[in-house]
Amino acid sequence: MMKQGIILLVILLLLLRSNVMAEKIVFAIVEDFPPYQYVEKGQATGIDVDVLREACKQLGLDSEFRVLPWKRILKNAKEGRVTAIPSLLYKEERTTFLYFGTEPTHINTDSIMARKGSSIKVSKLDDLKNKVVGVIRGYSYGPAFDSYQGLKKEICDDHSVLIRILNKGRIDMAVASEMPFRFNCKKLGLQDRFETVYVISQHPTYTGFSKKALGKRGEAMAEKFSKMLRQLKANGFFQKTETKYLR
Question: What does UniProt give as the signal peptide span (predicted)?
Fold first, then answer.
């Protein structure tokens, strides 16, 4: 009788343990996309990492951030080896293997930046004629800007070079994705030197959840995260996290 009681107790404890163990969401991120996701001192960090880790905590989920090359991220999501991909542009072809939530993780903004006090005003691309504008090699800023013929472009290898020559006055303006630009300004101690004078384009990005990994639960999971993202924006956590990386 006692033996049966012990067996029942062990079974009960195992059942309780399985109920207590939280589901883990494995996010696949890239190594170098600051300030959203990057690796520092061997650890995944960035705005996406902090926000999604907090979202998981609030939802009673465990989180893991796995750093992978971009092509492997997509492949692993298709195969169900990872649960989710943050900071994705919505594309119809991606809906074949991912569920997208309704709330953006963040908005990518491509802007024209100038030195504060320069008196530069831009209301349309034609205002850039005869100005020297810095761009980053290999980047696209949308078809309207990329195909515009009236520009004198100074091509830079990375954000740090772009920011330095703008600060020294060697170019009139710089075109960049605004958040990475501001993140690199902070690293260089130049975070208060520049201002946005024109917004070229804005694109919302989302967290996509693997259909293979989650099955039919994925759609509900995507919406749970959307709801939590809205809460984190409403209660100030999102804005506080952005400030941490940009100021």
Answer: none
Q: What is the CATH number of the domain that holds 41?
A: 3.40.190.10
Q: Which domain holds residue 121?
A: 109-202
Shared domain for 45 and 34, answered yes or no, is: yes
Burial, 89: exposed, middle or buried (Cβ in 10 Å; 0-12, 13-18, 19+)? exposed
Phi-psi region of 154 (alpha: psi -120 to 50; beta: other; left: phi over 0): beta
Same-domain check for residues 182 and 217: no
11 belongs to a structural domain: no
CB atoms within 10 A of CB 125: 15
Q: How many whole angstroms from its chain centre is CA 232?
A: 15
User: Smallest Cα–Cα separation from 116: which of 193, 191, 198?
Assistant: 193
Summarised one tens digit per residue, pLDDT across range 41-76 is 999 999 999 999 999 999 999 999 999 999 999 999
Which tokens hold the place of 34?
């600051």
* Tokens 């078809």, located at residue: 143
Tell whether 37 and 156 lie within a shared domain: no
Tally of structural domains, the chain? 2
Structure tokens at 245: 């990386």
Instruction: Name the pTM for this structure.
Output: 0.83
